[in-house]
Amino acid sequence: MIIVFRKDASDQQIEHVIERVEEWGLSPNVSRGTERTIVGVIGDEAILRSKPLEALPGVEHVMPVLKPYKRASAEMRPERTRIRVPAVHDEGAPLFIGGTGVVLIAGPCAVENYDLMLEVGRRVKAAGAHMLRGGAFKPRTSPYSFQGLGREGLEILRAVRGETGLPVVTEVMDTKDVELVSEYADLLQIGARNMQNFTLLKEAGRSRRPVVLKRGMANTIEEWLMSAEYIMNAGNEQVILCERGIRTIETLTRNTLDLSAVPVVRRESHLPVMVDPSHGCGHADLVPALVRGAIAAGADAVMVEVHPDPERALSDGPQSLRPAEFERLVEEAGRVARAVERSLEPEGK
Amino acid sequence: MIIVFRKDASDQQIEHVIERVEEWGLSPNVSRGTERTIVGVIGDEAILRSKPLEALPGVEHVMPVLKPYKRASAEMRPERTRIRVPAVHDEGAPLFIGGTGVVLIAGPCAVENYDLMLEVGRRVKAAGAHMLRGGAFKPRTSPYSFQGLGREGLEILRAVRGETGLPVVTEVMDTKDVELVSEYADLLQIGARNMQNFTLLKEAGRSRRPVVLKRGMANTIEEWLMSAEYIMNAGNEQVILCERGIRTIETLTRNTLDLSAVPVVRRESHLPVMVDPSHGCGHADLVPALVRGAIAAGADAVMVEVHPDPERALSDGPQSLRPAEFERLVEEAGRVARAVERSLEPEGK
Amino acid sequence: MIIVFRKDASDQQIEHVIERVEEWGLSPNVSRGTERTIVGVIGDEAILRSKPLEALPGVEHVMPVLKPYKRASAEMRPERTRIRVPAVHDEGAPLFIGGTGVVLIAGPCAVENYDLMLEVGRRVKAAGAHMLRGGAFKPRTSPYSFQGLGREGLEILRAVRGETGLPVVTEVMDTKDVELVSEYADLLQIGARNMQNFTLLKEAGRSRRPVVLKRGMANTIEEWLMSAEYIMNAGNEQVILCERGIRTIETLTRNTLDLSAVPVVRRESHLPVMVDPSHGCGHADLVPALVRGAIAAGADAVMVEVHPDPERALSDGPQSLRPAEFERLVEEAGRVARAVERSLEPEGK
Amino acid sequence: MIIVFRKDASDQQIEHVIERVEEWGLSPNVSRGTERTIVGVIGDEAILRSKPLEALPGVEHVMPVLKPYKRASAEMRPERTRIRVPAVHDEGAPLFIGGTGVVLIAGPCAVENYDLMLEVGRRVKAAGAHMLRGGAFKPRTSPYSFQGLGREGLEILRAVRGETGLPVVTEVMDTKDVELVSEYADLLQIGARNMQNFTLLKEAGRSRRPVVLKRGMANTIEEWLMSAEYIMNAGNEQVILCERGIRTIETLTRNTLDLSAVPVVRRESHLPVMVDPSHGCGHADLVPALVRGAIAAGADAVMVEVHPDPERALSDGPQSLRPAEFERLVEEAGRVARAVERSLEPEGK
Lengths: 349, 349, 349, 349
Known about the structure:
The structure is a homotetramer of 349-residue chains. By secondary structure, chain A is α/β, with parallel strands linked by helices. The first copy, chain A, folds into two domains: 2-63, Alpha-Beta Plaits (2-Layer Sandwich), CATH 3.30.70; 83-339, Aldolase class I (TIM Barrel, Alpha-Beta Barrel). In chain A, 33% of the residues lie in helices and 17% in strands. Chain A is built from eleven helices and 14 strands. Chain A has helices at residues 11-23, 45-49, 114-127, 151-164, 178-184, 198-204, 221-233, 261-268, 277-281, 287-297, 323-339, and strands spanning 2-5, 27-32, 37-42, 59-63, 83-85, 95-97, 103-107, 131-133, 168-171, 187-190, 211-214, 239-243, 273-275, 301-305. In chain A, the strands form three sheets. An eight-stranded parallel beta barrel of chain A has the order 7-8-9-10-11-12-13-14, surrounded by seven helices. In chain A, strands 2-3-1-4 form a four-stranded antiparallel β-sheet, with helices on one face. At the A-B interface, helix 6 and helix 7 of A face helix 6 and helix 7 of B. Chains A, B, C, D: This is Phospho-2-dehydro-3-deoxyheptonate aldolase. Chains A, B, C, D: GO terms for molecular function: 3-deoxy-7-phosphoheptulonate synthase activity; aldehyde-lyase activity. Chains A, B, C, D: Its EC number is 2.5.1.54. Chains A, B, C, D: Residues 98-331 form the DAHP synthetase I/KDSA domain. Chains A, B, C, D: Keywords: Transferase.
């Protein structure tokens, strides 16, 4: 931690800061320049991060030197984490997220009914998807919009999972539901709006399911990694980071998908990184280009909304691909994956 | 709702949309221009908002005409809402938020211990504050930071409330805690990071306590009002909207306090509007100017962090005023309130 | 400057950086921690700012300690700059921007014709404005919008200036026009879109007129001060910083007026600070609240769009006040100015 | 154009708006709903865009139906524009930007001296680049940074262009220099900070050189297309749109590269689209992933900063690739181009 003093800081003020730092068991290193005095503090930066150093008289600002994340950090664990999703049926092979294969997850925004879910499941599986998505609990901006089927939606997911053999990912929105959703889902999803719902993160940290943690709409990558840290610190090391677009000044897309987050996360962390271009852009016609871009940039998994009849979808129809469009997309995705020396075969042995 | 077709939309596509709209029981009004065909739909716009119109073939985009909020809207209830906070002790007068008096709320970011809380309570009361703030449950970016005292913090708040006669406002972060916090708090606070934690909003809608709803860091005013709508729709009409800064490209302040939100909310809604400049800017030295600005712009209440020893604060020290600074601020705030024909006397009879 | 090395930086890499720093004539100060080695560099930080330190192998990141602005900095010149605008007619008193009086500038967005300009000039003068605004060169998003009257507009401004005795502020958009506009304007305005048009800044730095430098729509306060630095470094120390709103995620206002910029600029710089709420919010009904807020927060001047017939304005009608609305606003502004111990009397002797 | 009235608009106010619209020669189409009256206006929307409709009493807001761009619009010209860059030497083949081949442009941020420029030119040509970049006029945030060699830089570019046979792209910052730069450059570049320098756009519209128009740091795609419209409307139809990152809340990257802009521009416009990931992210280690992503998403050209000795670069060293890194990148780029059915062979016959 570097403490920079105001130009007019008095010797007494500087002395006082040094004393406080020593009280906390740390060793300050003072440099007096012509323009500013600065104090570097060697030792456990976590101690200092929790201290209001900028409130000390004479201090102008404080600059952390180390990254605030530990368990999520690539420095702490240089080998990349590979998350194992067991096969649905005994004879199947597990999936690995974070290996050489790129995982494709597809399905409707919301679970609407059994027939539709089964139809989508069969179509996306035939096209090459590895997992099925669908929300039973839906975060909606308006209280007057469809809020999801809840437990009934989970039951439908379980049935379609069994029929198709596709593992499922579904969102959990409330601490009270983490245990319930964990019984049904292969991957628990925490949505963008809950990325800093810290009680939910802690509860998900007590689940035995891997967690897909979506990036918040206005959160930095550092904050996103800190939210992963919450889950990991509570005991669950299996976190997948999912980029889904951030809010910017652009209006022709729903959000701005930040594909540079893919290489940044791969540099900063050992955790796998997923991309959701459907929410990222909000328009089905843009999704294929962004899936190709995401895989080319290094994504370990891609999640795409697919609906057999988008104009009747109860949620997010305009960004949903039709099954035939998804089929074409899988072909393109496969070519791009091979161009970057990966494949669409994430099944292990 | 206005449906704009693509230039190359076929007659069949347009016909299909018209049929769907009629199926929903609404009356479409078609205008064929040289450049575009547009369809205006008269009737209950809420029906259309839940339909994926942009997924219909040939549709370019869709423009809502009406505001999505109802209960929170100034159109539905032209007279401004005045929220009554009963006096702590029998002999006292209730406070009103949203009347001619401007309400001052002050206190530390987090409840740290009884002595400190009592000291702050006494000092801010003497200076002129009407209510006391302090967090028992603290949302912190890092799992390694102080997370609040929880129930013990609520007990401290209750004791200091009784000692000082100041009603208290404190945050609730989890659906499981809404009932508990409602037993201790005069106002329930929902923090910026939970503004779209919809299950929490619904639960707060079942509480009997007025709710201070902070604006999310990347949320529009429309979304903020929709979150108020969630609380109101669940049965609790007593919502106070609190502006606390949004994320922008500026880095010298922690957030950018959006004071234009004050007149916008007053135009769009009947609900009272509060401003929290401490979180809004993150630096104690900027707080007095922003409190003056907030009151001049029309805020009904202002919430300020005050700590007797900011350099030892367990949370947000750099943005906390010392009690003596708060005293000066109250004087300035009073002069500005009178300049805009208000006062610092929100107590009713 | 603090140079932070990667955890895995080799001794050779660190040595190499130290050699480079010494080559530049500076003294590096090395601290080896358990987690990171850092090197603090004492001396002229401007030298280091121009070096690509982050391109040196082993370097993780670099943190400047000093502010990049010098001439604009409050550290270099603690007393606040007061800019003198000479009286139009011999008998008049000069205006001072940056003194105890708050300067009110009013007028239409664009100069449209002589009669209208004269009418506005007389009305705003009668209401209490101290200066007149109006654009002869107009930056418009569309090439098909009214682009301003150019030189003819300047002639109209000169005539109305003479008639009313109000000094004028008008925009210059091109290096080729700086001399021309300087002949007509009392204050040269550089618009938000040109805040980083560095050749224009340099040219304005050679003018003898004070410059109103608007903040760019996505520029930080630090960049804004650096643009002032360009003007000052080219020889013109008379710069007024004008906050006019930044782009954010909010959509109900045209921009988000950043009133916290007012106290930040007053802390960081000795230059006067102006606020333009008309462009800042884009809606006439919000302007009065924001003018009050700006003055309460410490603005030295306020610029407001006024048009006698907004619905016929050639530019920015929706954000223009009618003269009668401006009159009421001046009254309110006066009360707020006095509440913060200022006045609307910026004329000196 | 759709005009939405306030709920409380009077019949007189509505009548007045209708009269104004008819005065402008347009035909209003009135729909009276229970909640709102709306007026649709058929005919030339450009007329209405220039009218301050929101300033008319009773009007709540106004929604344009048509896109504001014409010449840049894919609707006006469905076939994609292919820009021809003639060969430097007689025997060479011209390049085409916007055809099936993806164009690679490489070079240092700034022209520093002849030897370095020649070295880079030879290295990037050998690696497979099709054009050379290098700035002679440099927009720098600080007046104390290297500002470019100006005309001397242009002379160096000309010499290296002749030696290597690579056409060059270089920036023009000032209307006064457009003619000069046009004599030296094969493509004129307008930088992000000048995207709305409208006098410069008009002047570039009078040049015979194709123009690379970089997207502004806080500009929407619609505004970017409107700036292209300025150039095209002034007579120069040869515009290449270059995405280079927008400002967002993210801090680990210099900007957020908006790769969704690639498919959006391809849908909205016939103009070719280029991507500059070097400025887009600011860190050399992220560039290769983003070049791959850009090509996979459909970019027609990619511009990359390459410097033989980044740690001695006078500008943007940290984001510059070394020549050997660029070689590897070209290989990867070629594989991805082929995966999306393109190539790195943009030379025509």
